[in-house]
User: Fold Ribosomal RNA small subunit methyltransferase E from Desulfobacter postgatei 2ac9.
Amino acid sequence: FLINTEALSTDKAVIHGQDAKHICKVLRLKPKDTISMTNGHGTDFTGSIDKISPECVEISILSEKKSLTESNLDLTLCTAMLKHNKMDEIIKQITQLGVTRWIPFYCKRSIPLSGPNREKKHIERWQTIARESLKQCRRSCLVEIMPPMDFEQVLSFSKSCSHRFAFWEASDRPFGGPAPGENNKAVVLIGPEGGFEEEEVRSAVESGFISYSLGPRILRAETAAVCACGLIQYLLGD
Ligand code: SAM
Assistant:
């Protein structure tokens, strides 16, 4: 379970809301049962339940340890804004693949977000999905979801990463694994449903990205994102 660090005193934690209901009604845990928790920032806890109701679970912390499920690779995935259900799918999958942060971005052919307060509402929705996915795969760090950027901001953000991969279906360079870099930070660019414009790929390459192909078939953007992150995690992370 994900616990809010503010709700954590030195040796006590409190879980409210849907999670409390789930622990009480579905898992049917009882006082003195053991429970595993994380703060979403890389620390895991084991606790013993003191008091339990569907509204609130009070826990004594028994032990604390650094996460064993996080990768040593700092991996940023940047995906062009896609249709909403695809963005939801991406956040679920990349949480499982150990991605550190996710940057949705606008480019020439991306799909604009719709509705009032759209960025705030979408970010909140993605954060909820990320929290659920974290629990499912037992990660200890939430994917950091950055507010949508424009393409130039993404290129400038990426400058701090040694490994910069731009996936482009028209590239003649098969993805064969990264060269050694100065730091263990990687960034991946995936384009929109309509693909990147050639000029966008050129400016990514000018700012230090290498453009790679993921093979002869055109993958859906969300498939390409998952495939690229899986390959890079395998090659550079764990
Ligand atoms: N029209 C489909 C869709 O609706 O998803 C395909 C979109 S594909 C153009 C979207 C992005 O996935 C591309 O901009 C690229 O980043 C990546 N991609 C897809 N297939 C690829 C391939 N074979 N090699 C490299 N990148 C690929």
About this structure: Helices lie at 17-26, 84-96, 118-137, 151-158, 198-206, 221-236.
